[in-house]
């Protein structure tokens, strides 16, 4: 049997993400003074295969490959990596890959369990709104995924400082304030993206179906997600819910994102459900 | 040439003895010159710090070298030999190399991993170089020691974490705040440890220093010293709204900052983080404050706990460092072995032969097909040129005696002979 190119590329990417995750987790427990950048290099290698996979699928399908569960989850983990690399090179935080790569790998792994056939775009989705809507939505979700990873780093470091038993991890992790600020930046990035994704969705729905809002489960859950992150920002700006509380909220927020992503498609139904 | 270390340090001699034999500033040059001309001592470096006085020497004969160095110390400082004999340690050969590596990498220091010793060693070396008291062996050994020390510093965590309470406080502050230069701090009360911590914080860039004290005169005194602003003691809680780091060390018998006060404060601060260090005994700050979000309270015991763990950590890292020292001794011994006439001559011949062959090949290729006889003639010609050129240095190296090491070193440098590498390939 002949293996399709895109499947092969996907498997390579998945394997490298697994290796990056393992190497990142080892890095957390390793006692050496210098942090190794192995996880980053493995992630970059995986990302190259992954990007090739997406390009191949784009060419074969003729549209952005996000029209089934396999493609959507794969595209989500790709988007998280784009943001991860950006932050890695901008802030050079030690151990960032140790906390982000597990998320990337898990999303990518979930992608591998779904059917992988490439289908033509259904007529209902053939619109320039499609590209705008999904790219905004995926980048928004990716920012929330990053905020979740940074939130976990914050909680670990906060525990170190509060408990007064400074582990080796304490030396490697960035300062609490740095983590808190990056977490905040990510939410201020994800929130407008989500807002714009919803606006573009609403406008598109009106032109395609003649109504702005139809209480489709995905729409409802997007609204819930939007409200949660609106609350996170509101609480920070008014009563100063920063630090630990903000970290916990950003982890909880991402769990809702994940539910909206998988739960809505798998359990509930609606126009966002893939055929 | 044999390597020798003779000296005493904080472990073998009390301060009363160390100060007697110290080679303080102006005396050093005179000492270097006096030692330079004494008997078997061909090369020498004198290291004199508050914790150790050591003489590194390259000697032609070990026993008389020891005798010369001891005699020099006793004569120069006018101390009795039996007093010296009680405190002096003597390391020879491999042990001397190990000792020098360990001193340079601060494995032999009172506080393992402290960084000053390397600088002091470099200064001692500079003084020796300036007075031309060293030669090939000690120069190489000293440069090697510096690189071993650097390798240990980068590969182990020996100098990594804070081993004093005041440094531990700064280290923590750096893990709470991202940029200390935008943070302000308040010193409540006074005391040696608190002032030391304050100084370290200011050195780390903290801006905005507030000082408060029950005795206003004392506060003004400290404000002058730290370029800070005096805050009246009654108002200090209000001022904490603008303060990110607090060091508290007063003699008060009760808590001067309570949980409710800090809770209220945090609301007004919009929950911006606060790091509070309470060095006072009895404690001056309600320990429950640590439970409030974004407030990090450390008392003297928790800081001491961190320091203790760090010291244990350094001890563990020191074991790794000793392994590195052992490895590097091997590489120095290899170099020393290469300083023999035979190996240098062999290397020189090999190099010449290599060049001859490769050049010959090039020329033969250029000339194209040729009669066997002509090729032989060219080969004979090149071989005899090489042999004639190499003959005089070979004879000179074999005959060298007193200045052997210098000569071998020069030849190796002039012809770029990499004997160490060659040896590695063989084994």
Largest interface, counted by CB within 8 Å of the partner chain's CB:
A-B, 25 and 29 residues
Give the CA-CA distance, first to last residue of chain B: 25 Å
Q: How many beta-strand segments of chain B?
A: 10
Helix content of chain A: over 70%
Mean pLDDT of chain A: 88
Quote the CATH topology of the largest domain in chain B.
Beta Polymerase, domain 2
Total of helices of chain A? 9
What share of the residues of chain A does DSSP label as strand, in percent?
under 5%
The main β sheet of chain A shows up as:
none
Largest sheet of chain B: 6 strands, parallel
Determine the fraction of residues in helical runs of chain B and give it as a percent range.
55-70%
Give the helices and strands, then pairings.
The complex is a heterodimer of chains A (275) and B (427).
Chain A: H1 5-29, H2 38-61, H3 69-91, H4 96-112, H5 128-163, H6 168-172, H7 176-209, H8 217-239, H9 243-266
Chain B: E1 2-9, H1 15-21, H2 25-36, E2 41-48, E3 52-59, H3 62-77, H4 81-87, E4 89-92, H5 93-104, H6 116-130, H7 136-155, H8 165-176, E5 185-189, H9 192-203, E6 209-212, H10 216-226, E7 229-230, H11 236-239, E8 245-249, H12 259-268, E9 274-278, E10 295-299, H13 300-338, H14 341-367, H15 372-399, H16 404-414, H17 419-426
Helix pairs in contact in B: 5-7, 5-13, 7-13, 8-9, 14-15
């Amino acid at each position: 049997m002949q293996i399709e190119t895109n499947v092969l590329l996907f498997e390579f990417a998945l394997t490298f993400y697994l290796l990056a995750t393992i190497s990142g987790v080892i890095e957390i427990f390793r006692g050496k003074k210098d942090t190794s950048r192995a996880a980053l290099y493995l992630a970059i290698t995986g990302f190259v295969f992954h990007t090739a996979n997406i390009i191949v699928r784009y060419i074969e399908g003729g549209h952005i490959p996000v029209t089934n569960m396999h493609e959507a989850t794969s595209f989500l983990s790709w988007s998280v990596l784009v943001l991860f690399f950006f932050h890695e090179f901008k802030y050079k935080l030690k151990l960032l890959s140790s906390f982000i790569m597990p998320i990337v790998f898990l999303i990518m792994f979930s992608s591998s369990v779904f059917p992988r056939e490439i289908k033509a775009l259904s007529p209902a989705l053939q619109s320039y709104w499609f590209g705008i809507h999904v790219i905004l939505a995926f980048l928004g979700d990716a920012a929330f995924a990053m905020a979740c990873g940074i939130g976990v780093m914050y909680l670990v470091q906060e525990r170190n400082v509060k408990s007064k038993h400074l582990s080796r991890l304490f030396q490697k992790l960035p300062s609490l304030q740095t983590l808190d600020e990056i977490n905040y930046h990510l939410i201020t990035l994800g929130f407008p993206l989500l807002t714009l994704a919803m606006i573009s969705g609403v406008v598109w729905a009106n032109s395609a179906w003649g109504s702005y809002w139809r209480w489709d489960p995905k729409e409802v859950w997007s609204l819930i997600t939007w409200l949660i992150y609106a609350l996170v920002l509101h609480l920070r700006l008014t009563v100063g819910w920063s630090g630990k509380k903000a970290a916990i909220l950003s982890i909880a927020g991402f769990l809702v994102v994940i539910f909206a992503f998988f739960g809505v498609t798998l359990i509930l139904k609606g126009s966002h459900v893939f055929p | 040439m044999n390597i020798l270390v003779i000296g005493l340090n904080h472990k073998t001699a009390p301060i009363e003895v160390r100060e007697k034999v110290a080679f303080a500033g102006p005396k050093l040059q005179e000492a270097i010159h006096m030692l330079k001309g004494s008997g078997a001592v061909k090369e020498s470096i004198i290291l004199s710090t508050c914790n150790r006085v050591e003489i590194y020497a390259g000697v032609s004969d070990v026993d008389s070298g020891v005798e010369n160095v001891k005699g020099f110390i006793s004569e120069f400082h006018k101390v009795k030999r039996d007093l010296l004999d009680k405190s002096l340690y003597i390391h020879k050969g491999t042990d001397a190399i190990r000792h020098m590596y360990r001193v340079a990498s601060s494995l032999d220091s009172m506080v393992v991993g402290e960084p000053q010793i390397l600088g002091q060693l470099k200064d001692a070396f500079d003084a020796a170089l300036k007075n031309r008291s060293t030669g090939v062996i000690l120069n190489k050994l000293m440069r090697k020691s510096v690189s071993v020390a650097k390798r240990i510093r980068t590969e182990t965590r020996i100098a990594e974490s804070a081993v004093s309470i005041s440094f531990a406080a700064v280290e923590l502050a750096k893990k709470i705040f991202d940029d200390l230069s935008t943070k302000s701090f308040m010193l409540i009360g006074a005391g040696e440890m608190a002032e030391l911590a304050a100084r370290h914080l200011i050195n780390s860039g903290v801006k905005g220093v507030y000082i408060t004290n029950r005795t206003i005169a004392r506060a003004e005194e400290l404000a002058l010293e730290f370029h800070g602003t005096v805050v009246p003691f009654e108002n200090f809680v209000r001022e904490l709204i603008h303060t990110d780091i607090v060091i508290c060390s007063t003699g008060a018998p009760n808590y001067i900052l309570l949980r409710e006060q800090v809770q209220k404060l945090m609301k007004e601060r919009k929950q911006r983080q606060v790091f509070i260090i309470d060095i006072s005994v009895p404690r001056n700050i309600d320990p429950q404050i640590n439970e409030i979000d974004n407030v990090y309270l450390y008392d003297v015991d928790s800081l001491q706990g961190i320091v203790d763990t760090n010291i244990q950590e350094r001890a563990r890292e020191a074991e790794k460092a000793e392994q590195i020292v052992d490895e590097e001794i091997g590489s120095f011994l290899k170099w020393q072995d290469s300083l023999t006439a035979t190996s240098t001559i062999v290397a020189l011949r090999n190099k010449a032969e290599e060049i001859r062959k490769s050049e010959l090949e090039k020329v033969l290729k250029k000339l194209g097909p040729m009669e066997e006889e002509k090729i032989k003639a060219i080969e004979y010609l090149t071989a005899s040129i090489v042999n004639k050129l190499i003959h005089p240095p070979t004879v000179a190296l074999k005959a060298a005696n007193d200045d052997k090491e210098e000569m071998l070193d020069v030849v190796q440098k002039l012809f770029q002979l990499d004997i160490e590498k060659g040896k590695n390939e063989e084994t």
